[in-house]
Amino acid sequence: MTDALLSRIPYARFLGLEIERSGDDLTVVMPFAERLIGNPMLPALHGGSTAALLELTATAQAAIAFPALRQPRPINVTVSYLRSGRPEAVRCRARILRAGRRVAHVTAEAWQGDPDQPIAALVANFLLDDPD
Q1: In CATH, which superfamily holds the domain spanning 2-127?
Q2: ∠ CA 6-51-89 to the nearest 5 degrees?
Q3: pLDDT tens, 61-76?
Q4: Which helix (H) or strand (E) holds 78?
Q5: Is the separation of the CB atoms in 128 and 66 below 8 Å?
Q6: What's the pLDDT tens digit per position in 102-112?
Q7: What is the pTM of this model?
Q8: What is residue 43's three-state secondary structure?
Q9: Domain ranges in the chain?
Q10: C-alpha angle 105/61/130, rounded to 5°?
């Protein structure tokens, strides 16, 4: 289901997002591509592509946990950039901290190499389904 969800999102296809699964854990990988460089002087990944990776991973995690006819929609999203992203693949994992009938509170972290040293983190609330 997650593969199908991400393949329906044009920006996820543009980023080349791939799914890695191990048991119940879902990790989304954004392979490195030159078009993702935001600062060629460093070089560093563009913050928008990193934020999109975080949000799409959180969306996929919510969609898996709460399958419905509609894709979970973001209510609010906050991204914290913790360090520059190097020109290499980025991995991301999301967790649902709390969920009700209509809203889920989700966090996500993106890293390169060591998961204990994230390059960015997300906190978001998602609308799970329309009451209609």
Answers
A1: Hotdog Thioesterase (3.10.129.10)
A2: 75
A3: 998 888 877 889 999 9
A4: strand 73-81
A5: yes
A6: 999 999 999 99
A7: 0.91
A8: coil
A9: 2-127
A10: 65
